[in-house]
């Protein structure tokens, strides 16, 4: 019974300590956490778990590493405020994914960001089609900032027919079209090599085609 009581007391104490630590480190939304913030939060959480699971250990020895991490994080955060170079190294820089309506595949590859990620985040922004986007910027926090074209309010939704030079046959079946139809229509538009196409969709009777950057 005494052991359980110790665990309860330690848990409540560590809960209060962690709340205080996070409060002192400043208010940040989950989506705005930097890599530094995330690493510190994970380490503090792991230390708290160890402290709770080992009720015989000295509680002060468990709390000391947490406080040290808090100090380190605050110092680095202050240093980050004064040095843009340090911020760029630690947090990274925003990356332009769509520039003037054209997709930058090289930027996507560098960020290990794929078309499924792009379409998902566009849908979360209530953007139905890539052709509606003038600029899309992948922020260092991982969120996507989207700037729509002025004439973007059209019906329909983006259904990928080609991704990275590969025909998406399931999506073709969804719109009741064939592989032959797609190749034939693209030839009429001047696109003879499917492997040269990074992304293609068929929206409101029109093709949206983006070529691989290195082959433009």
Describe this structure in words.
The protein has 216 residues and is of the alpha+beta class. The protein contains 8 helices and 8 strands; from the N terminus they run ααααββααββββααββ. It has helices at 2-25, 35-53, 59-82, 84-91, 105-110, 115-124, 169-174, 179-188; strands at residues 95-99, 102-103, 133-138, 144-148, 160-163, 166-167, 197-203, 206-211. A hairpin with a 2-residue loop joins β1 (95-99) and β2. The longest helix is centred in the first third of the chain and has 24 residues, at 2-25. It is elongated, with a radius of gyration of 25 Å.
List keywords for this structure.
single chain; 216 residues; alpha+beta; four-stranded antiparallel sheet; 8 helices; 50% helix
List the helices and strands and how they pair.
Layout: H1 2-25, H2 35-53, H3 59-82, H4 84-91, E1 95-99, E2 102-103, H5 105-110, H6 115-124, E3 133-138, E4 144-148, E5 160-163, E6 166-167, H7 169-174, H8 179-188, E7 197-203, E8 206-211
Antiparallel strand pairs: 1-2, 1-3, 3-4, 5-6, 5-7, 7-8
Helix pairs in contact: 1-2, 1-3, 2-3, 3-4
């Amino acid at each position: 019974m005494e052991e359980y009581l110790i665990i309860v007391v330690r848990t409540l104490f560590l809960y209060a300590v962690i709340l205080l630590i996070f409060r002192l480190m400043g208010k940040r939304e989950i989506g705005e956490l930097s890599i530094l913030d995330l690493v510190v939060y994970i380490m503090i959480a792991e230390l708290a778990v160890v402290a709770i699971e080992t009720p015989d250990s000295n509680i002060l020895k468990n709390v000391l590493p947490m406080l040290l991490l808090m100090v380190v994080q605050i110092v680095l955060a202050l240093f980050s405020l004064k040095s843009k170079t340090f911020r760029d190294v630690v947090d990274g820089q925003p990356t332009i994914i769509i520039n003037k309506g054209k997709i930058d595949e090289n930027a996507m590859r560098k960020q290990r960001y794929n078309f499924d990620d792009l379409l998902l985040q566009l849908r979360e922004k209530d953007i139905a089609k890539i052709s509606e986007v003038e600029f899309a910027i992948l922020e260092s926090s991982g969120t996507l900032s989207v700037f729509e074209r002025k004439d973007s309010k059209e019906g329909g939704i983006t259904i990928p027919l080609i991704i990275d030079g590969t025909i998406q046959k399931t999506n073709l079946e969804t719109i009741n079209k064939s592989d032959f139809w797609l190749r034939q229509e693209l030839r009429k538009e001047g696109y003879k090599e499917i492997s040269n196409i990074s992304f293609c969709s068929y929206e409101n009777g029109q093709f949206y085609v983006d070529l691989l950057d290195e082959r433009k």
